[in-house]
């Protein structure tokens, strides 16, 4: 790589640039080289751990964070990373213990650490724990927009739509450019029948800041319905351009729905893309992790086969993430991807699928015959 004269901090900075660009392979290579030069750099071991998480190599990630903690038992980012990794293997109590180390070190009110912990809990469906973490942070960071948005998402997941709308409104007041929170709020308003409120929120989001076609279509439909703007009006030109960009390439959902339109006839091609061997993965994980604690659950691994024969395997979130990545849009939030897919399904079939969780999304697709869950 020609980087042998870099300091450990410079290696970390270079890896961050690759990581932020979504080029995890390059980030991994930079960090590996950096560690050969600076084997005692906690910073590089932690960076490598998070890169492994991004690559869904959780066993290796855990090893990286443990190596970092051997070098510095009070390195807070390593405790957070280790906790995130343990959550992936269903070791919730151990993960919570890792997060508790942050509080014991007097860093419980650190905004960045707290948001990272809360979001990790949210991603694994531990909404009550996530809510508690966000609530604790709000006592010292009441005016942080990202925290308010995170609380809103979590309250919605817990069924508190009123609280969710309140927090999302507060988030957008604190930061008018927090577009994802505003779009989320518009969907909640639309769901409760407040069409004018939904349109008002969508009008404040530029077309380029929309990452799923559902919100774009919803803006167009509401503008026509409530304000009487004709479908061919030049007003919609930038919105239609954004739709064209988002729909430029057919994705897995398009292919699935094409199968539905063909009445899902014929047998699924059993010679489709081979899945990774689960037993080999588990053997490797056991070598790295050791046997699970007696009361610890093994990681929930599922296998989904689409109508075309494509296979996705892992946790529910990992399966949806794989579908999203196969569409060539790895930067799109999972929620946005599911909402876009839900809009396409509704357009083609007239039926709704839930998007509040990856499991509900996939199980609804299976009930409709769009895919098959092979557990």
How would you portray this structure in words?
The protein has 375 residues and is mainly alpha-helical. It is built from 19 helices and three strands. The chain has helices spanning 8-20, 24-37, 42-54, 58-71, 76-88, 92-104, 111-123, 127-138, 145-157, 161-174, 179-191, 195-202, 213-227, 237-246, 252-261, 278-289, 316-326, 334-349, 358-367, and strands at 302-306, 311-314, 371-373. Strands 2-1-3 form a three-stranded antiparallel beta sheet, with helices on one face. Helix 4 packs parallel to helix 16 and helix 5 runs parallel beside helix 7 (111-123). The two termini are 43 Å apart. Residues 259-299 have low confidence and may be disordered.
Succession of helices and strands: HHHHHHHHHHHHHHHHEEHHHE
- Mean of all residue-level pLDDT scores: 82
Q: How many β strands by DSSP? A: 3
Spatial sequence of strands, sheet with the most strands: 2-1-3
Please tell me what the overall shape is: globular
**Share of residues in strands:** under 5%
List the total number of helices.
Answer: 19
Helix content: 55-70%
Our measurement of the CA-to-CA distance between the termini, rounded to an integer number of angstroms, reads 43 Å
Largest sheet: 3 strands, antiparallel
Uncertain segments are 259-299
What is the gyration radius calculated from CA atoms?
22 Å
| Class of secondary structure makeup | mainly alpha
């Amino acid at each position: 790589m020609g980087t042998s004269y870099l300091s450990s901090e410079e290696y970390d900075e270079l890896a961050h640039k690759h990581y932020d660009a979504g080029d995890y392979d390059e980030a991994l290579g930079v960090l590996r080289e950096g560690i050969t030069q600076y084997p005692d750099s906690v910073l590089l071991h932690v960076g490598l751990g998070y890169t492994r998480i991004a690559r869904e190599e959780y066993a290796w990630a855990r090893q990286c964070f443990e190596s970092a903690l051997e070098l510095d038992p009070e390195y807070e980012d390593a405790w957070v990373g280790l906790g995130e990794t343990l959550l992936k293997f269903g070791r919730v109590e151990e993960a919570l213990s890792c997060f508790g180390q942050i509080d014991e070190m007097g860093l419980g009110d650190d905004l960045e650490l707290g948001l990272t912990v809360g979001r990790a809990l949210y991603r694994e469906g531990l909404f009550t724990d996530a809510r508690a973490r966000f609530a604790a942070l709000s006592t010292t960071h009441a005016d942080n927009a990202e925290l308010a948005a995170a609380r809103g998402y979590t309250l919605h997941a817990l069924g508190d739509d009123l609280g969710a709308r309140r927090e999302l409104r507060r988030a957008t007041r604190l930061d008018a450019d927090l577009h994802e929170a505003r779009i989320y709020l518009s969907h909640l308003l639309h769901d409760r029948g407040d069409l004018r409120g939904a349109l008002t929120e969508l009008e404040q989001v530029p077309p380029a800041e929309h990452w799923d076609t559902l919100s774009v279509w919803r803006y167009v439909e509401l503008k026509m319905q409530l304000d009487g703007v004709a479908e061919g009006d030049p007003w919609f030109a930038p919105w239609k351009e954004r739709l064209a960009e988002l729909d430029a390439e057919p994705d897995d959902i398009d292919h699935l729905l094409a199968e539905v339109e063909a009445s899902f006839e014929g047998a699924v091609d059993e010679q489709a893309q081979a899945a990774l061997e689960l037993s080999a993965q588990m053997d490797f994980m056991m070598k790295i992790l050791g046997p699970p604690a007696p009361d610890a659950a093994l990681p929930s691994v599922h296998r989904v086969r689409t109508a075309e024969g494509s296979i996705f395997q892992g946790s529910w979130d990992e399966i949806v993430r794989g579908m999203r990545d196969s569409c060539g849009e790895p930067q799109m939030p999972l929620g946005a991807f599911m909402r876009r897919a839900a809009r396409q399904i509704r357009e083609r079939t007239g039926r709704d699928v839930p998007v509040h969780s990856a499991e509900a999304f996939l199980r609804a697709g299976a009930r409709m015959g769009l895919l098959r869950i092979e557990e």
